[in-house]
Design goal:
The chain has 204 residues and is an alpha+beta fold. It is 19% helix and 34% strand. The chain is built from 3 helices and 9 strands.
């Protein structure tokens, strides 16, 4: 969905002594800042089958995001889902905050949400096991940070790996989520770090 653009036009007037005020020509309209750009399907780490990009939607996703639900505001937020023909999916969420300070605070809250996600999941789902790791900073714009959450249900014999990152460029914060069946050893961590850098650099 296209973001709303706002234009403002200023009308200048000049007064001449002894004469009525005269209106000057209307100044050119100031263009609103361009909306942040999303990743394309081909910018995610390579998969066994090609990635397909869904449309960009305004607001938060209806199904929510496991680790960041309740942290990202709906206002100023858009998201885009990606998928492959196998059990691999991804999502990018972009939020434009009112100020750079609020964006910085949001990015910090998101980092905390990702760092504590596994413990919260264990509280909600008895029997869940897993390992959460922080994989360091990506040096791009105001910085980005990468996390992994490796989960399993021993009784069911299923394992899932999720890669997550949060990055910021000025007032804009983006969150990337990537997941598939399997464990961290089979996840494209190096490629995901590259995708994270591309996503933040591409915002503006």
């Amino acid at each position: 969905m296209r973001s709303t653009r706002t234009f403002r036009t200023a009308l200048l007037t000049a007064a001449v002594a002894g004469l009525a005020a005269t209106a000057l020509p209307t100044a050119p309209a100031a263009a609103a800042p361009a909306a942040p750009k999303f990743l394309s399907a081909g910018q995610w780490p390579a998969s066994l089958t090609p990635w397909t990009a869904g449309p960009v939607h305004k607001g938060l996703p209806e199904d929510g995001s496991v680790c960041t639900a309740g942290t990202i505001p709906a206002k100023g937020t858009r998201h885009r889902d990606f998928r492959t023909e196998l059990d691999t999916g991804a999502r990018q969420t972009i939020t434009v905050a009112p100020t750079a300070a609020k964006a910085k605070a949001l990015a910090a809250e998101l980092r905390t949400a990702l760092a504590t996600c596994l413990e919260r999941l264990k509280e909600q789902e008895p029997g869940l096991e897993g390992v959460s790791r922080y994989h360091g900073r990506v040096n791009v714009e105001e910085g980005a940070h990468v996390y992994s959450i490796d989960t399993s249900y021993p009784e069911a014999g299923s394992t899932d790996i999720g890669l997550h990152s949060v990055g910021r460029d000025g007032r804009t914060v983006t969150v990337l989520e990537w997941g598939q069946l399997g464990d961290l050893d089979g996840a494209p961590l190096k490629g995901f770090r590259k995708t994270t850098g591309t996503a933040v650099a591409k915002l503006h």
